[in-house]
Design goal:
This protein is an alpha+beta fold. 39% of the residues lie in helices and 31% in strands. The protein has two domains: 126 residues, no CATH class; 62 residues. Strands 1, 2, 3, 4, 5, 6, 7, 8 and 9 form a nine-stranded mixed β-sheet that branches.
């Protein structure tokens, strides 16, 4: 596999899990796992480059060393092609990658010179990943102040959710990450982080 052909439509998600990694003699990795959509995990496979995988591991922090060493060990002793790394067996469970945005595209085939998606929602090419900033620490407030600020807090959360929805819309329009944040008024890292966590609140039931 020298090149992965994809459609132009991009899907952005915040969490995937990987159970197995398949390596061959190309520059690409195939990942068997699941994708999280609206708090539900769905079976899904992924294709990506070693460069993107390294970025995922770097953003994964505590997941980095164990997965990286497993891959390195397999590469050093690779005796067949393709080779499978079973993370569920090696590490005891599938590895979840979250706290980052995955920019996904659908692989495509070329019937009669027209590239068309063929994988439905069960396979994606991971074009790149973008780290999400950490949740900012909130100051301690007395109970009276918290009670008096509930309405304002609700309005603030709603506003941040609107900004993040705008940001996702610009990403769907294929704007670069920096441009999408700028257009949505979220160029500042702290504002972007607050908007992301506010956007997650309804789905998490908070």
């Amino acid at each position: 596999m020298n090149k992965v052909h994809t459609t132009t439509a991009i899907t952005n998600i915040q969490a995937i899990s990987i159970g197995q990694i398949i390596m061959d003699d190309s520059n690409y990795l195939t990942l068997w796992g699941h994708v999280q959509l609206e708090e539900v995990w769905h079976l899904c496979d992924f294709v990506t480059t070693y460069e993107v995988m390294n970025t995922m591991l770097r953003y994964g922090h505590d997941k980095h060393d164990a997965v990286q060493m497993t891959i390195v060990k397999k590469l050093e002793n690779m005796r067949r092609i393709p080779e499978i790394i079973d993370l569920e067996t090696e590490l005891g469970a599938a590895v979840v990658f979250d706290n980052m945005t995955f920019c996904l595209q659908k692989p495509s085939l070329q019937p009669e010179n027209n590239w068309e998606p063929y994988s439905d929602e069960e396979c994606y090419y991971i074009e790149k990943v973008v780290a999400l900033p950490p949740m900012p620490a909130l100051p301690d407030l007395p109970p009276a102040a918290l009670a008096g600020s509930r309405n304002s807090l609700t309005e603030c959360i709603s506003t941040f959710q609107h900004y993040y929805a705008l940001y996702l819309g610009f990403i769907e329009l294929e704007l670069e990450e920096e441009a999408a944040r700028m257009e949505a008024g979220l160029a500042d890292d702290h504002l972007f982080s607050m908007a992301y966590h506010a956007w997650q609140l309804p789905a998490s039931g908070q």
